[in-house]
């Protein structure tokens, strides 16, 4: 009996040593000596087991279970990033694992340019990112609509009402990102960029005017959608501030389009009767928050408006802005230019 037990122990030890040697070899020795690149794509929501098996199918590793065990043992299986990678055929399993978790210094990641247009709202952003392969619309919207703990890192979000999302704060610009960037990575870049664009002087001037950043962005977003030139934006901002001062409705067609998503030049009578706090024909004051993500020109206009005698304006079909001092002049302009 003792001899049998010893034999069993020896066999088990040999198996352990043998598998250990196999594991070490498979982990540290590349599948081939070729340095050719292989394009490997990790789809969103792929788990480590699926990724391991796909690596085996692609011929990049010998044993998918070794890769699976290695990333589990290292505690990095949840950090495998979705995206497109160029992997060398002579990478070892350890090197591939490092690359796919962004740990390798020699990682070759594809970069892309993402261009967000001034005046786009968060729904536009979500649809654009989905088309570029960055998740689904809902992935972006869920992230920017529900308060995240890391938002506290951005002090300029402090004046934003707690029930408001990030509409208006995601600065429209061109961003260069890795193809495996997360939605959080992209949103963080936008917020960081906004923080840089809103200079200390601009912030101080906002405070001196007894306004908040949220109020400035709300008006800037309306100005962004109403007119396009820097001169017109400052004049229109001045008109809106004058209306606010005398408790007159902003009467912005852009805010109605935000509600209806119609994008029409002139809203209907029914549109002006919609019961929404964004309906600036029905409710006085600023709407609850921005209606889009404004660019720096509109933001500067909201901070540094041009004072004038005008109280009304309209935009002609060819993009010209016509200003009026009285309601009668405004009606005459509408008859002349908006036939």
How are the secondary structure elements laid out?
Layout: H1 2-28, E1 37-42, H2 48-58, H3 64-74, E2 83-88, H4 93-100, E3 111-115, H5 122-131, H6 137-145, E4 174-178, H7 183-197, H8 200-208, H9 213-226, H10 230-245, H11 253-260, H12 269-272, H13 296-303, E5 312-315, E6 321-324, H14 327-337
Antiparallel strand pairs: 1-2, 3-4, 5-6
Helix pairs in contact: 2-3, 5-6, 9-10, 9-13, 10-13
Shape: elongated
Number of domains: 3
Low-confidence stretches: 103-108
Order of helices and strands: HEHHEHEHHEHHHHHHHEEH
Percent helix range: 40-55%
Q: Radius of gyration over alpha carbons? A: 29 Å
Which band does the percent of strand residues land in?
Answer: 5-15%
Number of helices: 14
Spatial separation of the terminal alpha carbons: 106 Å
Secondary-structure class = mainly alpha
Strands of the widest sheet, in order across it, are: 1-2
The chain-level mean pLDDT equals 87
Q: What is the strand tally?
A: 6
Mind describing the biggest β-sheet? 2 strands, antiparallel
What brief labels describe this structure?
9% strand, two-stranded antiparallel ribbon, mainly alpha, 339 residues, Dna Ligase, domain 1, elongated, 14 helices
Question: Brief overview, please?
Answer:
The chain is mostly helical and 339 residues long. The protein contains 14 helices and six strands. Helix content is 47%, strand content 9%.
How would you explain this protein's 3D organization?
The chain is mostly helical. It folds into three domains: 2-108, Dna Ligase, domain 1, CATH 3.30.1490; 112-197, no CATH class; 205-337, no CATH class. The chain has helices at 2-28, 48-58, 64-74, 93-100, 122-131, 137-145, 183-197, 200-208, 213-226, 230-245, 253-260, 269-272, 296-303, 327-337; strands spanning 37-42, 83-88, 111-115, 174-178, 312-315, 321-324. The chain has a two-stranded antiparallel ribbon. Strands 3-4 form a two-stranded antiparallel ribbon. Strands 5-6 form a two-stranded antiparallel sheet. α5 (122-131) packs antiparallel against α6, α9 crosses α13 and α10 packs across α13 (296-303). The longest helix has 27 residues, at 2-28. Residues 103-108 have low confidence and may be disordered.
């Amino acid at each position: 009996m003792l001899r049998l037990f010893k034999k069993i122990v020896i066999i088990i030890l040999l198996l352990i040593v043998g598998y250990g040697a196999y594991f070490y070899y498979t982990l540290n020795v590349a599948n081939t000596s070729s340095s050719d690149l292989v394009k490997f794509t990790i789809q969103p929501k792929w788990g480590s087991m699926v990724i391991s098996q796909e690596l085996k199918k692609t011929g990049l590793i010998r044993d998918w279970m070794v890769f699976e065990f290695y990333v589990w043992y290292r505690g990095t299986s949840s950090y495998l990033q979705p995206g497109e990678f160029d992997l060398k055929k002579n990478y070892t399993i350890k090197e591939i694992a490092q690359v796919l978790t962004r740990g390798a210094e020699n990682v070759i990641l594809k970069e892309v340019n993402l261009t967000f247009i001034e005046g786009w709202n968060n729904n536009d952003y979500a649809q654009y990112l989905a088309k570029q392969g960055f998740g689904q619309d809902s992935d972006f919207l869920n992230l920017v609509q529900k308060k995240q703990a890391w938002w506290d890192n951005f002090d300029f979000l402090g004046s934003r009402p707690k029930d408001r999302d990030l509409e208006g704060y995601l600065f429209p610009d061109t961003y260069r990102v890795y193809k495996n960037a997360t939605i959080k990575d992209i949103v963080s870049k936008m917020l960081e960029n906004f923080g840089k664009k809103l200079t200390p002087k601009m912030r101080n001037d906002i405070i001196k005017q007894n306004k908040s950043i949220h109020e400035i962005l709300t008006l800037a977003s309306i100005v962004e959608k109403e007119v396009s030139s820097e001169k017109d934006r400052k004049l229109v901002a001045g008109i809106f501030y004058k209306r606010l001062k005398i408790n007159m409705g902003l009467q912005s067609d852009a805010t109605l389009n935000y509600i209806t998503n119609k994008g029409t030049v002139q809203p209907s009578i029914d549109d002006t009767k919609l019961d929404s706090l964004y309906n600036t024909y029905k409710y006085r004051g600023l709407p609850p928050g921005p209606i889009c993500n404004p660019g720096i020109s509109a933001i500067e206009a909201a901070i540094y408006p041009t004072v004038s005698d005008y109280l009304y304006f309209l935009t002609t079909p060819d993009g010209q802005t016509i200003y009026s001092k009285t309601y009668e002049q405004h009606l005459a302009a509408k008859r002349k230019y908006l036939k």
